Amino acid sequence: MPHRTSSPSPARPVYARGGGERRTPLYAVGGETLVAAPRPENTERTRGAGLRTGAARARWLAPYARLFEPPGRRAFTLAGLLARLPAGMFSVSAILMIASVHGSYALAGAVAATGPAASAVVAPLTARLVDRYGQARVTVPAVAVAVAGMLSLVLCVRYGAPLWTLFAAQTATAATPNVGGMSRARWAHLYRGSSPRDEAARHAANSLEQAMDELCFMLGPVIAAVLCTSLFPEAGTLTAAVLLFGGGLLFAAQRRTEPPVARTGKGTPAVAPLRVPGLPTLLAVFLATGAVFGALEVVTVAYADGLGHQAAAGAVLALQALGSAAAGLVFGSLNLRGPAGRRFALCTGAMAALMTLPLLASSAGALPVLAPALLAAGMATAPTMVTGMTLVQRLTPPARLNEGMTLAVTALLGGVAAGSAAGGWAVEHLGASWGYAVPPAAAVLAALIASAAAASAAGPGRGAS
Fold it and tell me: Which of 90, 130, 133, 96 is CA-nearest to residue 114?
């Protein structure tokens, strides 16, 4: 029953104020006012909150959902993911395999560094062939050579071959094609326009590709560590060879989305990427960033081994990739404005700051303390890579796009090689805990180069806009 209060108000509706509820109507009848019961709003608010949450989730996923609406895109994306998974496995597998047989992380780090170092020469040549003859015609023979190198390394370690054969076999793996670069080239071709819609799609595609790279480096070390420690030392490398062979062939078979070979006018060859203003500076940043990854990998494996938890090394490394993948997906859903060069400098600065966390956490001598530090440290790496790859795509001539992106990956792998060697040396001579000083030092170098490039850029050039 309505509550009755006396009131001299006229016979018309008036409204109560305050109380945080919706204004309640007071119906004046005769000399009394009938106060209607307050409307229940909890159900409406809960329903509204659910709708807002669902709408926010839909907006967050919408840029990625639109990428896969046309046919053929899921196929090359999944095949590329399968072919890239060995990239996260092979280094850890080689380190565990060689260290378990020869008992030296310095040797293991040096051998693991040989492949990326050789890629600095081989990979750009392979990418140049891709630009000239197409992805499918080059991918198949390149995968065959790389798999042969992996199998040779297994045989050399298994049967105690001379140490120089380990380096020779590892060098052959440099023929591994840059599947990630070729996948990004497909997206760049599919969204090659200059409209805001195409630019947003390229940003989302680059973020998705980076997240898949991080997924490979998240799952790869875990798979490698489990296989090498629970089965036999060579199991990780053998599995990586099988995945690369199968994934590479499947990727090459996706001809519908393969970009056509770009033709330049007769007598006017495309400018070499290394001669494009601004690109060498970007490559220097990628080189320093790669050193962060290479050192972090070797040092973490040695740190976990020193605590008697070698099998957990892959899982701990996966947390760094998990943080990076999550940050990359969120980054890709944002509508970014402002100069990309300045954003690149900010991302590298954040990476340098976050990479100090594993160094601080390693002094505790416990993996549960190190794990969240690695998770947080990874959150700036994907935005750095996404922004850097976007700048490379803007700067590189279309006829040599695969070569330009492969040069970026090659610089990254060269940095991984240097970081692996530096990390292995630091572990041997300073201890695993102090080995964590190498990643932040390399990240600071990357931030300094990116900041200097952003500060010296004159005007809103292609690489800065």
Answer: 90
